[in-house]
Structures are given as structure tokens and as C-alpha cells.
Amino acid sequence: MLKLFKTSILDLLEPDIRTILFKTVILSLFSIIMIVYMCWTLFNTHQVFDIWLLGPILSWAWGLLALIFGALLLPPITIMIGSIYSDSIVDHIEKKYYPSRLGMRQIKLSELGFSISKNFCITIIVNILLAPVYLIGTFFPIISFLIFYSVNGYLIGKELFETVASRHLEMKDRYLLKKQNNSKVIIGGIIMVGISTIPILNLIAAVLGIVFMTHFFHSLVLKTEKA
């Protein structure tokens, strides 16, 4: 997996990938600015809680919730941006490394849009439901981090895997292959979530996630065929 990750990083230097990377960096920067602005706006509403002794406590809690909510939004938004250009990214990587294994299944725009929207909404809803756990986890950071990275690693790993596998396999076969390699898919997702939460590196996470999962998918298929 580390070898695939290293190859994926080098692939970002490819001219075609660089062009897509530039677009996703702009979109990611815009998204980060909007998230920071939203958090700042929510934090500045602390005047609503001007209730004697409770005021400072409530405003602190509200501001913390706003920051947590912003942090929760960043990974799924970053990966969603990459999904917009997924076809072009996967197509380039497959033509270069796997010319005999090109994805022949055409993904309709409506299908892609539905898949991106569905996965994005699921990730957001799950994280909102877990927000109280994350808030409590501020007193137990290790537990909070474990839950955050495990849950989002699973969700985003699944989304990235589906994005690549859907070009090659029908739903039943995709499910079977993922089930056989579920732990590896989750680990791949956790790596991408980790990158998407690191300043500067989060700008390349969208494209890197798709490139990495393309190599990862083909490595799984190759092992399955040899078995």
C-alpha cells in the first residue's frame, strides 16, 4: 500500500493530472474559506447567549461546536471535489498503467451526480449525529480521533472505491470485491481523511484520493485473478 501511495504522489506531477489538480486546489481553497467564514459567523453569534454567568459558557460551547462542524465538513467536501473530476483522473491513470484494463462501463452524469450527492449527504448526516460524541471527546482526544478517523475512513474509503470500481464492475461484483478487502479499503480511506485534515496537504487530497484508489483497485483485481 505504501508503494501505491508513493506512485500516486508522483502521478500528481503528470501534466494532465496537474491541470485537474490546479482546478481542485482552487475549489478546495474556496471551500476552506467558506467553511472558515461560516465558523466565524456562527462563533460571532455568541451575543445571543448573553445570560449572566451562562453567557460565557454557552458562547464557548457554541464556538467549539462551530469549529467542530467546520472540521467535519472538510473531508467530505474535499473528496466530493475530487469526485467531480474522477472520470478524467481514472482514465488518465488507467491508460498509463493499465492499458489492457480500461474501464469500459460508461457512467452516466446523472448516476455520478446521484452517487456524489448521496455519499456526501450520508457523510454529513453521520458526522452531525456524532457531533455530541466529538464534543465530549474534546476531554478525551484519543477516543474522539479514533471515532472520527474510523467512521470517516470507512465512508470515504467506500466512496473512493465505488468511484473507481463502478467503471469496471456491476454493483454485485463491486460489493463482493469490497467485502473481501474491506479492511484495506478502510485503511485507504483513513489515510485520505488524515491528509484532508492537514493544512496545505488537504488541497491535494481530492485528486490524490482518486489516483491512489485507482492503483489500489487494480492491485486488488490483479491479486484476485492470480488467486
Name the helicity range.
over 70%
- Tell me the structural class: mainly alpha
The proportion of residues in beta strands is under 5%
Total of DSSP H or I helical runs spanning 4+ residues: 9
SSE succession: HHHHHHHHH
Query: Runs with pLDDT <50, length 5+?
Result: none
Please, what is the average pLDDT? Answer: 80
Radius of gyration: 19 Å
How far apart are the first and last residues' alpha carbons, in Å?
19 Å
Number of strands: 0
What oligomeric state is this? single chain
Overall shape: it is globular
Major sheet, described briefly?
A: none
Overall tally of structural domains: 1
What does this molecule look like?
The protein has 227 residues and is mainly α. The protein has one domain (2-226). 80% of the residues lie in helices and 0% in strands. The protein has 9 helices and no strands. The protein has helices at 2-11, 15-43, 54-84, 86-97, 109-136, 141-165, 171-180, 182-196, 205-226. The longest helix has 31 residues, at 54-84.
